[in-house]
Amino acid sequence: MRIKNRTMNIPHIRLPKLPWRGFLAGCFLVSFFLGILAANWVGREKMIQYGMLNQYYVGQLAYAKLDSGAYFLYLCRLRMKVFGMAALFIYTRFGIFVLPGVIGWYAFSLGYLFVNALVCMKLQGMLLVLVSLFPQIIFYAAAYFGLGRVLFGVTSELSMPMGIKRLWKNPGLFLLLSAFLCMAAGIWLESYVNPLLLMNYIRRM
């Protein structure tokens, strides 16, 4: 007499998906605004006294000699350390705090820097900060965008290119590797391309 194994069917509860693009964008904007508030709290006099964004210091950068190779290695250690930490934490329960925290810190620093530039150098300072962000900011944003997709579990929406789909059956792995490549490309641009743009802009100021 055969006895069939009976298994208890536990209903699967699906948690509502967060609007992750809006969530990360909101973290960025809130932190950017907090950076602006912090800069205003510090005050104009202290910014002018202790800030590095003034005509004298910026003018020195116009003819400074930069070892791009050493700068690239320095940025690799600096940027990849933070990015690698965020990439590891997205596979844990703490990823929901770490990734927005990293993005928020960059946004906070950017907001503070914008106000510092505006106070010390007016419109020229604002443009200087914008020039200092390009073109690497595009690849950095794409890298953290990829981590956000992995963290919030929306890799199933990914439409992978022909050929690559045969090689990578795991969209999450494809996103993670793509994010690291974007980060490496951003570091290379920040080391070799951005300094040229900055020097050309400063010389024309």
Task: Provide structural commentary.
- Helix 4 runs antiparallel to helix 8 (171-192), helix 5 runs antiparallel to helix 6 (136-151) and helix 6 packs antiparallel against helix 8 (171-192).
- It contains 9 helices and no strands.
- The chain is mostly helical.
- Mean pLDDT is 82; it is low at 1-16.
- The longest helix has 39 residues, at 95-133.
- The protein starts with 19 loop residues before the first helix and ends with a helix.
Which segments are poorly predicted (pLDDT under 50) over 5 or more consecutive residues? Answer: 1-16
The number of distinct helices, counting runs of at least 4 residues, comes to 9
Specify the helix fraction band: over 70%
Supply Rg. 22 Å
List the helices and strands and how they pair.
Layout (H helix, E strand, L loop, with lengths): L19 H23 L1 H7 L4 H7 L6 H22 L5 H39 L2 H16 L12 H4 L3 H22 L1 H11 L1
Helix pairs in contact: 1-5, 4-5, 4-8, 5-6, 5-9, 6-8
